[in-house]
Amino acid sequence: MKDDARTAALPHLPSLDGLRTLAVVLTSLIHLEPDLVPGGFIGVDVFFVLSGFLITSILLREHALTGRLDLRRFYVRRARRLLPAVLALMAVFGLVTVLLTPTVRDLVVAAVTFGGVMTYTMNWASVVGHDVPWQVDHLWSLSVEEQFYLLWPLVLIFFLPRVRRRTLLALTLAGVALSTVAQAVVFDGTHSVSIAYEASPLHAQGILIGCAVAQVFARRPDPTVAFEWFGRRSWTTWLGLAALGAMAVGLDLDHRPAYNGGILLASVAAAVVVVGLISQDMAGRDSTVRRWFSSAPMVALGKRSYSIYLWQNFMAWALTPLLRDSLLWVPANVVATLAAAELSYRFVERRWMSPRPPRATRTPRRQPTHRAADALR
């Protein structure tokens, strides 16, 4: 596979921060008001598509510039981006466990949960039938993502020098199909939400769709050309958003349609939105949808979406004894979660998000642009 050194660098796009806001709102609503948006779980799939696109774009750019992938650098960046904030959450979780329920069983559960979260293997606890404390049970999605990104750079290292771009894209799409079919078969055979929804190979289609979009993006040195058709037709972005909205209120995680193509359709709709926003943002096209997602409130919340996602369940758990049946339930959760997320973002995430520049006086080796990675979940 011949890389083109002109492969487009991916700048930080404000509209994609706004899309993160939509994703985290959907995931928060299903935890707070599941009857209102039973399909709010598709917010996770929006995150998956966006993450797959951004990270694969960065990896392809690095390979185009240097002819290799620096695995150590990639994994260190992922650790710096993700671990500090989740470690802060788990420290609070452990402290509360010790203070409120200091039984041997609870301490053991807390210790095992801590290990599962910090090693990004917690999704498998639910798959094998173990209950995870609901303050942190939503972190299964981080495990699925990081297990994928442990392997994906290795896949690219193997295939990039050996196959044509079209072949790699075809293999990626084959992975989408395989994951989707396997998810449907497993759910039809077991009727287990935990297995069909949280097992990493069965929920990889969204990330792989994002990876496929990134490969199309990287095929053209001018990124505005790759998705020009979408850039000129903002209605496609609205169509993707309408599809996501319909699935948010129409899908149900406990029933077959979610697994027999529902999650795949949500991921495709998310990809359409991602493509539309990218093409409009990078071409500087003015549209209502682009202005909305690039607005200051949407961007600000999107930058904090990782911390919001981390703290939403914990705050709901903390407020349940006092406010679960009160009209203040949703407003109190919103305020508490945003406050915790702001603290996490300001004092944890931003301190570790990017490494400090080296003091060496020699000219460093040319490195690919990684600005988009700074905002990755």
Describe what this molecule looks like in 3D.
- It comes from Nocardioides scoriae.
- The protein starts with 13 loop residues before the first helix and ends in a 25-residue tail after the last helix.
- The longest helix is centred in the first third of the chain and has 30 residues, at 71-100.
- Helix 1 packs antiparallel against helix 13 (256-283).
- It is 71% helix and 0% strand.
- With 377 residues, the chain is an all-alpha fold.
- It has one domain (14-355, 364-375).
Features:
377 residues; mainly alpha; 17 helices; globular; disordered N terminus
* Helix and strand composition category: mainly alpha
Put simply, the count of helices is: 17
How many β-strands, per DSSP? 0
Q: How much strand? A: under 5%
Order of helices and strands: HHHHHHHHHHHHHHHHH
Arithmetic mean pLDDT: 89
Biggest sheet character = none
SSE layout:
Elements: H1 14-32, H2 42-66, H3 71-100, H4 104-118, H5 123-127, H6 140-159, H7 165-190, H8 193-198, H9 205-218, H10 223-226, H11 228-231, H12 235-250, H13 256-283, H14 288-293, H15 296-303, H16 305-323, H17 329-352
Helix pairs in contact: 1-2, 1-13, 1-15, 1-16, 2-6, 2-9, 2-13, 3-4, 3-16, 3-17, 7-9, 7-13, 9-13, 12-13, 16-17
Transmembrane segments: 36-60, 81-100, 139-160, 167-187, 230-251, 263-284, 329-348
InterPro entries: Acyl_transf_3_dom (IPR002656), Acyltransferase_3 (IPR050879)
GO cellular component, one term: membrane
